[in-house]
Amino acid sequence: MDRIFVARLAGLAVFDPAGDQIGRIRDVVVAMRGPLPPRVHGFVVEIQPRRRVFLPITRITSVEPRAAVFTGKINMRRFEQRESETLAIGEMLDLKVRHQGEEVTVLDLAMERARPTEWVLSKVAVRRGTKRRGETLIVDWDEVTGFGVVQKDQGAANLLAAFDAMRSADLANVLHDLPRKRMAEVAAALDDARLADVLEELPERDQVTVLSQLHAERAADVLEAMSPDDAADLLQELPSDEAEALLRLMIPEEAEPVRRLLTYDEDTAGGMMTTEPVILPPNATVAEALAHIRQREQTPAVAAQVYVARPPTETPTGRFLGVAHFQRLLREPPSTLLGGVIDNTVDPIRPDLPLPGVASFLATYNLVATPVVDEHGRLLGAVTVDDVLDHMLPDDWRERND
Predict the structure, then answer these.
(1) How far apart are CA 32 and CA 54, in angstroms?
(2) Is the dihedral angle over the CA atoms 258, 264, 265, 266 positive or is it negative?
């Protein structure tokens, strides 16, 4: 391909000469040269979760709509952006620049081969006018000015469009590698639910950075969209007065489970549990249970079993009766009542059980989740294996690349 628009490269699979996929392109590294078209140095490639490396453009043998192929060996050292380098997708999309004296927005950038081993950004796709009534133009690089100007509010619509299909954990990785200003702009452009999902995947330091740059009302809305246990973990990283101010801005029904979680020590069952597992009464049917765990927003660990309790079915519930495992549900007729298929052979745990005890309990009984009950036998929540792993790994595990 002689001309490639960089936004289309986001997420493109990268293959070695043997045909094995080694990763995906996450960005394009370029060097600005004043009025001259920027030279493309290469790609930022994610070769495994949270490891990003640099792949020189000279190693790329072909770029097709569905794949890029490289030759030679990859340097496994983590990519670190130099001061002279710019990320075309992460930093240049959505910039306000000028074309023929008029302010326009950068929608995309096109790279072309200048010499057999040299690529440059030769074209700029811009929008003139508003988003609804604007006109899209593709112009030469030298017809546009303003790329070197630091802008207070860059926006992020086109960057997010490039990463629209990316999983939350991968988008969090993109944000982590962006400059602080750009991270805030991208976060501000995400809707509440998407930002909540991304925040849950960010290192704690980045979570605090993003949340602190949102207006208080927006921050409270995002906390409401997060799972209560993740919201509680984030609030614990803030000064107590700031955390309390955000809790007061939240809808009381959303703030209540978060407040309850904050009363437990962080490394106990109560501090790790989710307060929103799938809970149904014993007279619900297997069909109803399967419909609940089939919902897309349920994580695999949470959807592995249904918790059966007397009403009310909001935590803290009525008396906890037991769990109905996913595999058992698949073997039963849809009309079967949950009260007849529950497993009560494994006792639930208490909220004050420390982290090592929770991990041992899950390992002993080969569980991916376990119920947490209080002294009155009421279900308070459930601890999942991913919650335990999150607390057992080093604090900076999300930032590590080895």
Answers:
(1) 18
(2) negative
Q: How far is CA 95 from CA 33, 190, 318, in A?
A: 17, 17, 55
pLDDT tens, position by position, 310-351: 999 999 999 999 999 999 999 999 999 999 999 988 899 999
CA separation for the pair 122, 57 (Å, rounded): 16
Residues linked to residue 36 through DSSP beta bridges, in sequence order? 33
d(CA 153, CA 356) in angstroms, rounded, equals 46
Contact 168, 179 (CB under 8 A): no
Q: What are phi and psi of 144, to 5 degrees?
A: -120, 140
Which alpha helices (DSSP H) does 200-251 contain, by range?
204-212, 216-225, 228-235, 240-249
**pTM for the model:** 0.70
315-339 burial: b if 16+ Cβ within 10 Å, else e: bbbbebbbbbbbebbeebeeebbbe
What letter does residue 323 receive in the DSSP assignment? E
